[in-house]
Amino acid sequence: MGTGGRGDAGEGEGGPAAGHVEGDHAFLGHPRGLFTLFTTEMWERFSYYGMRAILLLYLTDTVANGGLGLDRTTGSAFVAIYGTSVYLLSVVGGWLADRVVGARRSVLYGGIVIAAGHVLLTVPGFGFSMAGIGLVAFGTGLLKPNVSSMVGELYARHDPRRDPGFAIFYMGINLGSFFSPFIVGSVQRAWGYHAGFSVAAVGMALALVFFVAGYRYLGTAGTDVPNPITPDDRPAVARLGALVLAGVVAATVLAALVGKGWGIETFIDAVSYLALATPAVLLVVMYRSPRVTAAERPRVLAYAPLFVASMLFWMIFEQAASTLTEFADDRTSLELFGISISPAFFQAVNPASVILLSPVFAWIWTRTHDRPPTAYKFVLGLTFAALSFVFLALASAALGDSLASPWILVTVYVIQTLGELCLSPVGIAATTLLAPRAFRGQAMALWFLSNAAGQAVTAQTIEATEGVSDTAYFGGIGAVGLVCACILLLLAPWVTRHIRRADELEGAASAGA
Ligand code: PHE
């Protein structure tokens, strides 16, 4: 989930937040700026998920039908790597906002770049499509982490409306994600893929209109550059730039060597390697940094198993747009209550379930006083995700050659949503809590990286299992997920001790502030 954000980092210790306007309760008891960010992110997600709902179909449909004619394996791996790129680039978006342009301009520029990307996607042709997809990925990297962090800036640090504010924001995300598959899917069926993409372009244009029109409600949220580059920093920034470039080149060469040549697979592999290496490097840098205190160091270690669990969770969850869309297209009867449906429609099940089930989960966690502790909620999240695949494997085995009822996929998505609601909301909190003080700003990046790395694992798995039956594919991943959930369960007491210790340190620090 896209809540949390670097809002904590941008805000002075204990002081009022940048965008905080005293006594502003105009939007459901929340600051009016929340309405601005809610509508911006709602329309941005509308465009993102609408486009993603038909992306696999577009990539793999025949050229005669208006598609790009890729084979299923490459198409699915490409969709996964597109997701990887989006969240990997949010590291760049976070960095640019922190050090160069500030969150607000980052959202604005990101929005413009996304809209331009969708416009390119409305034009038929391989080159236009690839350029469009690249722009959407880059723009989303600029926009997504920063719009979340601005939500954090609307509230003073200890404002009790902060968490509910993020919950409302998350509803915005899911409202946009819920409506778009119907509209984009229907337009695509009637007028073709590029018409579908143009709906996404209109959605993104609306996001920009709401964002710019709502500037006046945002106070100063997102206007400052928290850690601007000084002349002294320039050599370090140049070194970082060179390092990133070297990483990209190394990953590309490695991918070319592994794949024995150049092609779309080279790109898929190179991005996968980068997405897996980046969080590993970040964790090692954090662990070894002299700016990290001795008390903080074990927390970095405690975060590692949570990171892996979260990566595996997103690895399964984000297959909605790739292998599960394939399953919808190839093996599912596309008729519900006598009405013929598009495979894209299934993408609405998760956001709908989030909207319906969030209040239930909020109620449960209040009743249990937020128990079980975070690590156990991660175990639950991963277990649900793995079970959804085990269920699909069994259903697929029972099917034989006949088509699956659409309710099978609906059930898969509902089970995954149960997992999402266990893992996602606490994930961000754990990320910010376990990150050492010197790395607060990068903690959010780490959270997005767990999603990016998860989808990289997906892309690699899809390529490595070409020709494997659905039962073996989903069953195998489900089984690995369950085994990892068991390992995390064994580690959970140890992780929990470290989080408690972090809690105490936080308490001591804020009492002293
Ligand atoms: N539905 C969530 C969103 O779009 C999925 C997500 C989770 C994305 C975590 C990024 C990180 O915000």
UniProtKB/TrEMBL annotation:
Keywords: Cell membrane, Membrane, Transmembrane, Transmembrane helix, Transport. It is found in: Cell membrane; Membrane. CDD domains: MFS_DtpA_like. Pfam families: PTR2. It is a multi-pass membrane protein. GO terms for biological process: oligopeptide transport. One of its GO terms (cellular component) is plasma membrane. It comes from the Bacteria. The chain crosses the membrane at residues 46-64, 76-97, 117-143, 164-184, 190-215, 236-258, 270-288, 300-317, 337-366, 378-400, 474-495. Its main location: membrane. One of its GO terms (molecular function) is peptide transmembrane transporter activity. Belongs to the major facilitator superfamily. Proton-dependent oligopeptide transporter (POT/PTR) (TC 2.A.17) family. PANTHER family: PROTON-DEPENDENT OLIGOPEPTIDE FAMILY TRANSPORT PROTEIN (PTHR23517:SF15), RESISTANCE PROTEIN MDTM, PUTATIVE-RELATED-RELATED (PTHR23517). This is Peptide MFS transporter. It comes from Cellulosimicrobium arenosum.
